[in-house]
Amino acid sequence: MKGRSLPLLQFAKGFNAMMLSCVLLLFAAGCSEDKEAPPVFKPIDLNLFSQTHKGFNLLGKFDAGWSNTGFSEKEFEIIKDLGFNFARLPLDYRTYTKAGNWNEFSEGCSEIDDAVEWGRKYGVHVCICLHRAPGYCVNKTILPANQDLDLWTDPVARAAFVKHWEFFAERYRNVPWTDLSFNLVNEPGDVDESTYFSVMKMAIDRIRQINPDRIIFVDGLNIGRDLVPSFRGMKNIIQAIHVYDPVTLTHYRADWIPGSDSWPLPVWPMTDISWYLYGPVKPEYSSSLIFEGNFPGGTEITVNVHQVSVRSTLQIRLDENEVYKKVFICGPDPGDDWTRIIETQWGYQNISGKDYTAVLPSGGTRLAFSNTDGDWLTVNKITIRFGATDSIVIIPANTTWGARQNTYRITTERKITDTGGNPVVALSSLNNALKMAGEENIPVMVQEFGVFNKTPHSVALAYLSDVVSILNRNKTGYAMWNLIGTMGIINSGRFDCSYEEYRGMLLDREMTTVIQKPDR
Question: Which of 14, 149, 181, 223 could form a disulfide with 157 if both were Cys (CB 3.0 to 4.6 A apart)?
């Protein structure tokens, strides 16, 4: 610093001492190392923000290949007209960057600008989300070699990820927090909490340097299901969860999910029982599904098996006696057990969709279903026929990986309860997450939920009504997937509902009314 001051001193002849001091101070400020001042946060009631925002996902830049037409002003008019005020924009980074170069932004950004401005015009808060971020997307696709990187492990991908959020933060620096928020990455999976937190914090810190008041959503782990304790207490951070459980109801016959066409026809309500039976290969999860009750001799037990990984052995025991055993071995040959052959990096994981039946030779009080040898299998449904007109159908609704089995009771009224007599509710995971959020003061919002159009309309309405009731009861905002399309309220392509003509499109008014359900 001293050596660089001499030219300035010569230049300063004729200035008085005060002026010279000011110039020196300015020079020192310019030559010193850049040190960012700590961000100053406005007090924002994040829980109130969540409670008062409800809306939809808009897919105008969702995928570079098949969903990249941009957004329309009409979408924002509709959201406002129907009484909503929130629009989440799940983006594919390839829709706003130059082909093959995720560090060069393209004219596609102007379509995001349009959405932000239309949101401000119609009083609809816009949330920008990187659904396909540099280095990560829950939906796999073929990418150029220089972009086929892992956000969680690769420094190049991490740098690009932070750069994109820096870009958006700068671009919308002057848009107030009341009009725009950021959702860093969609549905993180296969990453531990520590790594996830460290990568997200890199982006959070950079955004904070530009605009500390910007509300930032961080998705839950386990594909958006689980709250992340590491973010607790951070300023202007809202945790985002997604509600798609039970997947066998919300994604029934979804063409992008292999084997979903072999799932049983959804009903509602469903039971919160894991559909996985893990074998000895997964000792940390291996457990038996047990039902306590009165099972007389002659009772017929039918298990519809969905999928088997590599090898499994289904065993049914009455009390401690084996009454049925079936060995499944996956391979390229369909044989008698497989309706679809699926080869994965872990081996064959074939789809069955077939029934396997046993008749109890005598009576008992404890019925156990186990996988005694192998990896894992999943169960579509279990039908227990006590007599010609007396039966119960159990459809396991918990598709969460790693969920262990438990012991349940079948009452004389043919209801399923836990051992304490409490109903086994399929939405308990959502209830538990919201309970944790309330107890630990974690701001939370549901940024995705919805039902694919192949699920019976009446079932979809009943399910969505229960979900919305839970969210309203917990003062939690939400964004449905989606507004227009197969999981939405407009042009959804359902065959079993009555549509209303609305602005040149077809509106599912019944579903709209469910989503509009007011807070109570």
Answer: 149
3-class secondary-structure state, position 486: coil
All residues at 6 or more sequence positions from 190 whose CB lies less than 8 Å from its CB, including other chains: 152
Q: Is 196:188 a contact under the CB 8 Å cutoff?
A: yes
Please name the helix (run of DSSP H) or strand (run of DSSP E) that holds residue 328, with its range, or none. strand 321-329
Residue with tokens 């969903």: 67
Query: How many of the other CB atoms lie within 10 Å of CB of 254?
Result: 18
CB 484 within 8 A of CB 491: yes
Interacting residues of 309 by C-beta distance below 8 A, sequence separation 6+: 330, 346, 347, 349, 374, 375, 376, 377
pLDDT of 481 above 70: yes
Mean pLDDT value across residues 265-286 = 95
251 φ/ψ angles, rounded to the nearest 5 degrees: -120, 30
Residue that the structure tokens 């989300």 belong to? 129
The pLDDT score that the predictor gives to residue 13 is 36
Task: Tell me the whole-structure pTM to 2 decimals.
Answer: 0.84
Q: What are the domain boundaries of the chain?
A: 46-245+428-515, 260-418
Distance CA 375, CA 512 (A): 43
Over residues 216-233, the pLDDT tens digits come to 999 999 999 999 999 999
CA angle 413/247/187 to nearest 5° reads 140
- Dihedrals phi, psi of 513, to nearest 5 degrees: -60, -40
Query: What is the rounded average pLDDT of the residues 472-480?
Result: 97
Do the beta carbons of residue 95 and residue 105 sit within 8 Å?
no
pLDDT tens for 165-174 read: 999 999 999 9
Question: With contact defined as beta carbons under 8 Å apart, do 93 and 102 qualify?
Answer: yes
The crossing angle, in degrees rounded to 10, of helices 17-31 and 2-11 is 140
CA distance 428 to 466: 12
- Residue 13: CA atoms inside 13 Å, Cβ hemisphere, count? 4
Architecture of the domain defined by 46-245+428-515: Alpha-Beta Barrel (3.20)
CATH 2.60.120 fits 260-418, yes or no: yes
* Res. 22: pLDDT tops 60: no
- 360 close to 296: Cβ distance less than 8 angstroms: yes
**Cα separation of 471 and 464, whole Å?**
11
Per-residue model confidence (pLDDT) at position 453: 98
Structure tokens that stand for 500 in this block:
């209303």
Q: Name the packing angle between helices 109-122 and 73-81 (round to 10°).
A: 30
Helix-strand-coil percent breakdown of the chain, rounded to 5?
30, 30, 40
Q: What is the distance between the alpha carbons of residues 208 and 172, in angstroms, rounded to a whole number?
A: 13
pLDDT of residue 38: 75
Take residue 356 and report the two structure tokens written for it.
Answer: 């396997």
Q: Where are the alpha helices (DSSP H) in 17-81?
A: 17-31, 46-51, 73-81
Q: How confident is the model at residue 315 (pLDDT cuts 50, 70, 90)?
A: very high
Distance CA 259, CA 83 (A): 37
